[in-house]
Amino acid sequence: MQWLHNLKVKKKLFILMFVFICGLISIGVMGFYYLRQANENFENLYQVDLKKVEHASQGCVLIREIQGDMFLLMSTTYPEEEKKLMGEINNLTLKFDETLKSYEQLPLNSMEQGNLKELRDAINDYRVVKKRVIELATTGQDQAARQLYRDKGEVIADDFVQHLNDMTIKSQANADEMAAASHAAFQQAKMVFILFVLCLTVIGLILGSLIIRQIVTRLNDAVDFLDEIATGDFSRDVSAAHSLEDHSEFGRLSRSIDQMNKHIRALIKNISTTAENLASASEELSATAEQSAQASEQVAQSIITVAKGSEKQLHMANETSLTIEEMAKGIQQVAQNSMVATQSAEKTSISATSGGSAIEQTIDQMKVIEQKTDHTANVISELDARSQQIGQIVEAITTIADQTNLLALNAAIEAARAGEAGRGFSVVAEEVRKLAEQSAQSAKEITELIHEIQERTNSAVSFMNDSKKEVKTGAEVAILAGENFAEILTRVSEITDQIHEISAASQELTSGTDTVVMSAHHTIQESEKAAEETESISAATEQQSAAVEEIATASKHLADMAMELQNSILKFKV
Predict the structure, then answer these.
(1) Which pLDDT band holds residue 570 (cuts at 50, 70, 90)?
(2) Cα–Cα distance measured from residue 303 to residue 280, given in angstroms and rounded to the nearest whole number
(3) I want to staple 359 with a disulfide (CB 3.0 to 4.6 A). Which of 124, 181, 184, 482 is the partner?
C-alpha cells in the first residue's frame, strides 16, 4: 500500500469519494436493469397473457350466445323474429372473428399456433353446419334443423369451445410462470443489492480506515516531533521513511519541519560561535579604544588640511554647476527631438501596416484571378474540343449531301428513261438535288466558320496560358512584396521601440540632470557649511577622547553579556 501512502490527501479523499460514487452508480444501474426487466415481465403479462385469456374467454361467451340464438331461431315461426335473430347471429359472428383476429396478432408459441389451427378448422366445420341449420330453420323445417344441430353442431361447438378453454388455461399457466419468474428475479435482485451494499460498505470502511489511520499517524508523528522542539531538543532528525519516501502533504510537512529544525540548530550554533567571537571582540575593542585616543590627535591636525580643501572644493563646485546646467539644456533638446522622431516612426508603422494589408488583399485578389484564369482556360479548351466534334459532324453532313446529290442525279437519269411516266419523279429528283447542293454549301460555310473559331480558340488558349503565367508571376511578386512589407513593418516596429526607449532615457536623463544641478547647488551649500563645521570638529575631538573612555567601559560590559548568552545557549540540545 506504499502507493496509497505516497498519495496526497486530496487524492486519497478523491479515491474514497470515487469508490462510493462508483458504488452508487452501480447500484443505480443494477436497479434500473432489474426494474426494466420487471417492467418488461409485467407488460408481457398484461399485454400478452392476460389479453389471451380475455380474448379466449370472450370467444367462449360469443359462441354460447350464438348457440342460444341458434336454438331460438330453430324454435320460432315468425319471420320478423327469424330476421332479428339472423342479424344478431351475424353480429356475434363478426365480433367473434374480430376477437379471434386480435388473438392471432398476439405473440404465440408453437403449441398455441397448433391449437389456433385446430380451432380454425372446427370453426369452419361449425359454420358449414350452422349455415345448413339456418337454411332448414328459415324454410320451416325446424325439426330437421334441431336434429342436425344436435347431431353435428353441438359436438363441433363443444369441440372448439374446449379449444378456447384450453387456450385460456395455457395463457393462465403462462401468466403464473411469468409471475413466478418475476418473483424469482425480485429475490435475485434483492440478494444482489444486499451483497453489493455489504461489499461496498466493507470496501469503504477498509479504505476509509486506511486513509484515516495514515492521516492520524502522520499528524501524531508531527505533533510529537514539534513537542520535542518546544522543550528545546533540536538534536533529533525527522525519520527518513516519513520525509524522503512520502510524497504526500505530510511528507512535505515532515521535510519542512526537518529543514526548520536544521536551520534553528545551525542558528543556535552560529549564535554560540558569535557569542564567543563577541567576547574576544570586546577585549579587542578595549585595546582599540586606546588607539582611538591617539588617532584623535591626528584628526585634529587633519581638520586644518580639510578646511583648506573645502575652500578649493567650493570653487570647483561652482564651475561644475554651470557646466551641468548647459548639459541639461542640450539633453532637453534631445528629448524633444526624440518625441518628434517617435511620432514619425508611429506614422510610418501605421502606413506600413496599411501597405501590408493592401498587399495581402492584392495577393488574395491575384489568387482569385489565377483561379478564374484556370477556369476560363479549361472552358476554352472544352470549346475547342466541341468545335472539332462539330467539324466532324459537318464533314459527315457534307458527305451525306454529296451522296444525296449523286442519288438525285441517278434518279433524274432513270426518270428521263421512263419518259412521261417519270416526269414527276424527275421534278422531285431535281428538288432533292437542289437541297443537297444547298446542304453542301451550308456545310462548307459552317466548316469555314468552325476553322475560324478553332483558330481564335487556339489563340485564346495561348493567350490564356500567357495570362496564367503572368498572373502567377504577379502573385509571386505580390507575395514577395507582402513579405518585404512585413519585414519593413517589423523593422519599423523595432525602430519605434528603440526611439521610445531613447525618448524615455532622454526624459530620465533630463530628470537626472535636474537632480544633479540641485545636488551641485546643495554641494556648494554643504561646502560652505563644511568650512564652518571644521572649526567645531576640533572641539569635537576633545569630546571623542572622553567617549573613548566610555567605549572601554562599555566593551567590558559587552563581554559580560556575551558570557551570559553562552550560558543560555547551553540549555538547547543540538
Answers:
(1) low
(2) 33
(3) 482
| C-alpha cell recorded at residue 45 | 403479462
Other CB atoms closer than 10 Å to residue 13's CB: what's the count? 14
Domain ranges of the chain: 8-193, 260-569
Give the integer Cα–Cα distance in Å for 157 and 125: 9
- Check the CA dihedral 490-496-499-504 and report its sign: negative
Closest C-alpha among 90, 82, 83 to residue 65: 90
Q: Are 207 and 20 in contact (CB under 8 A)?
A: no
Beta-bridge mates of residue 573: 233
Model-level pTM? 0.34
d(CA 472, CA 464): 12
The mean pLDDT of 131-143, rounded to a whole number, is 79
Cα Rg, the chain, nearest whole Å: 62
Q: Can 8-193 and 260-569 be said to share one CATH topology?
A: no
In this structure, which topology does domain 8-193 adopt according to CATH?
Four Helix Bundle (Hemerythrin (Met), subunit A) (1.20.120)
**pLDDT given at position 423:** 67
Confidence of residue 492 (pLDDT cuts 50, 70, 90): low
Give, in order, the Cα–Cα distances in Å from 553 to each of 214, 274, 276, 284.
61, 21, 19, 13
Quick: pLDDT tens for 190-218. Answer: 888 788 888 888 887 887 787 777 777 77
Which 8-state DSSP code applies to residue 106? S
- CATH assignment of 260-569, given 1.10.3720.10, 3.90.180.10, 3.90.550.10, 1.10.287.950? 1.10.287.950
DSSP assignment string, 211-265: HHHHHHHHHHHHHHHHHHHHTTB------HHHHTS--SHHHHHHHHHHHHHHHHH
Eight-state DSSP code of residue 573: B
State the pLDDT confidence band at 241, using cuts at 50, 70 and 90: very low
Percent helix, strand, coil in the chain, to 5, is 95, 0, 5
**pLDDT tens, position by position, 495-508:** 667 656 756 665 66
